Structure formats: structure tokens, C-alpha cells
Amino acid sequence: MPRIDIRDIDDDTMKQLDEQCKKYGISSRADYIRLLIKMDILTDIVQKIRQDNATNTKGD
Questions:
Q1: Cα distance between residue 48 and residue 14, in whole Å
Q2: Cα separations (Å) of 58 from 45, 50, 51, 53, 54?
Q3: 21-45: average pLDDT
Q4: pLDDT at 7
Q5: Which CA distances in Å does 26 have to 8, 12, 58?
Q6: Where are the domains of the chain?
Q7: How confident is the model over 21-31, as a mean pLDDT?
Q8: Measuring CA to CA, how many Å separate 33 from each of 23, 25, 43, 54?
Q9: Which long-range contacts (CB under 8 A, 24 or more apart) does 4-9 make?
Q10: DSSP assignment of 5-33
């Protein structure tokens, strides 16, 4: 997994990250960011599967 430099993130975003970590009981910002990245990847995979299924069912 790529490294993320949190020094590039502005203060408002950092506060939101901290609030979300606290809300979901995640112990570190890095873990929460990794979770968001994994969720984004999974969402992309599901969208591609749905598109493939929609394309395949049109020919039936």
C-alpha cells in the first residue's frame, strides 16, 4: 500500500479525520485512511462487476 504523507493534509481535514476515527473507534489516522482507500477500491470493483453484468445481460 502506498505511503501517505499527512503533512500535506490541511487542519480542517485532520480534524474531520480525528472525529471519524473517534466515531468508528479506529485507533489511528493511518488505519482510517487505509480503510477509506480499501473501501474506494472495493466500490470500484463492484461498479465494474455491475457494468459487466449489465453488458452481459443485454445480449441475452
A1: 31
A2: 20, 12, 11, 9, 6
A3: 93
A4: 79
A5: 21, 19, 43
A6: 28-60
A7: 93
A8: 14, 13, 15, 32
A9: 4/30, 4/33, 6/30, 6/33
A10: -GGGS-HHHHHHHHHHHHHHT-S-HHHHH
Helix 29-58 vs helix 11-24: crossing angle, to nearest 10: 80
What does the pLDDT read at residue 38? 94
Q: What number is the average pLDDT over the span 10-38?
A: 92
Average pLDDT, the chain: 88
Q: Does residue 26 contact residue 35 with C-beta atoms inside 8 Å?
A: yes
* pTM, to two decimals: 0.66
Tell me if 33 sits within 8 A of 17, measured CB to CB. Answer: yes
What was the pLDDT predicted at 51?
93
Cell of 31: 488505519
